[in-house]
Structure formats: C-alpha cells, structure tokens
Amino acid sequence: MAISKDFHGGFSRFFDQPTRDTLRDLLKYGSGEANQFDFKEIWPEKHKIAKHILALANSGGGALIIGVKDNGDLEASGIPPGGKIDKTDVAKQVSAYLPRSLKFDILDFDYPIDSEYAKIKGKSFQVVIVNCDESELPYLCCKDHPELKSNVVYIRKRQESTEANHEDLQEVINRRLKSGASTPSMISLKEDLDQLKTLYKEMDSFSRLIPIESINRLLGYKPSQYAPEESLEEFVAELIRLKKEKIKRDLGISLS
C-alpha cells in the first residue's frame, strides 16, 4: 500500500509532538497503515492492545490510533459514544503482558465542532504512544494468553503485529548492539550467533563430501578400535542443538 510523503511527514511530526494539530494533519493526509502505526475503529481487546504495544516497541516505537477506519484510505470516524476507555484501567490490565522497562502513554484528542478540518468536527480519538529504548531490546511478552505466548518477541511486519522469526530476532538484537548498549550478556549472545553460523556452514559442507565410511569400505579399511562412536557430522549437529538451546535460555525463551 503506497503511503504519501505528506503522511510520513505528518506521522513524524505527530510522534515528536503529539498535539491536536499534528494529529489533525496526520488524519488529513492519511492513506493507509505502515509499520510504525496502526489504526483501529474501536479499542481492541486488552491482550491485543498489549500485542500491538510489544510489536511497536520492538520495531522502533510508534502509535496505535483509535477512532479511525482503514479501508485503504483512512476515515476519521471518531470513537463511538461510550467507546472511550479509562487510561489507568487499560494500563493496569495490559501491564501484566509487558516488561516494566517498556514505556507507553495513552492520550485523548477531542475536536470542537468548529474545527477547521470538517471530517473531525466534534469527534474524539485516543492514541497509544509507544516508545522504544533500544538498550532494552528485545521486549518479550510476559504472560500467556490463547492468542499470546510468554517469552516471545512480537514485531511489526507488513502492517501487522506478529511473532518474530529467527531473522527478525537477529535484526532486533543487532539494533540493540548498534545502540552501544551491549551488556556482557548481549556480547556473549553475538558471539554465540556467530559461532552458530560457523557450525551451520560446517554442516552444509558435509553434504558436499563423500562420507568417510564409504571411502573406508571402498578401500577395504576397517575402523580403528579407538574411533569415536559418532561421526563428525553427528557431533556438529549436536553442537548446533546445544548452541540453539543456550541462545534461547539467554533470551529467556521457553525451550518447550
């Protein structure tokens, strides 16, 4: 979906200075979603709010804007009567899913009937502003739910909040490393990932070699009584398994 330059600029101004004027400009030039923000006509369920907050934080920060229909173009419908939420109540309910270091705020925007932009006259919106401290990445979900998994990293991808795969997780970790906030544990993690890459390359090389057992049989050699029971390929495969388990433990990801 194409996003106009005015929309990109409008969002940057709004995120830097969330006011009624900058939100008005964002809605005026809006033409669809992007990874940094999400639009909802009404408030999602609490666990879904938590998922969006986690995904936005792991993707560099952003905003969840309530009161906007998205049918390809944005329609500033406003929050329906009785549809506003109590900010303190929501913060308490979603906090169980979020790390304490993840910061967000919920803002109210009410437009008078004499607003200069006709489509938002007399309408109300609520916005969740999600911050990202790259020194705290990755932000992991802290509580299970039928639609959420604890100890899992969620990100924004193709305008959706979704579970990170291996490559996504590496990108999140690299952003933390580039921030200069590399703790000893994160440095160790980078070393582990580099070692894992080396092991995978070594495993790949085995597929291009003739097994030594086949060569020995062809030449009539018998294995030494001191030869190890497992092959080098089996040994490397076991190292890969153990290294992956260590990385998951270090990230606090469940091994089940």
Folded structure, characterized:
- With 256 residues, this protein is of the alpha+beta class.
- The chain has 2 domains: 5-164, 2-Layer Sandwich (Methyltransferase, Cobalt-precorrin-4 Transmethylase, Domain 2), CATH 3.30.950; 184-251.
- It is 42% helix and 14% strand.
- The chain has 8 helices and 8 strands.
- It has helices at residues 5-16, 20-29, 46-58, 87-95, 166-178, 184-206, 212-219, 232-251; strands spanning 37-40, 62-66, 69-70, 74-75, 104-110, 124-130, 154-157, 160-163.
- A 4-stranded mixed sheet has the order 1-2-6-5. Strands 3-4 form a two-stranded antiparallel sheet.
- The longest helix has 23 residues, at 184-206.
- The protein is elongated.
- It starts with a helix and ends in a 5-residue tail after the last helix.
- Residues 33-164 form the Schlafen AlbA-2 domain.
- InterPro entries: Schlafen_AlbA_2_dom, Schlafen_AlbA_2_dom_sf.
- It comes from Paenalcaligenes hermetiae.
- This is Schlafen AlbA-2 domain-containing protein.
- Pfam families: SLFN_AlbA_2.
Short description:
By secondary structure, the protein is α+β, with helices and mostly antiparallel strands. It has helices at 5-16, 20-29, 46-58, 87-95, 166-178, 184-206, 212-219, 232-251; strands spanning 37-40, 62-66, 69-70, 74-75, 104-110, 124-130, 154-157, 160-163. The protein has 2 domains: 5-164, Schlafen, AAA domain (Methyltransferase, Cobalt-precorrin-4 Transmethylase, Domain 2); 184-251.
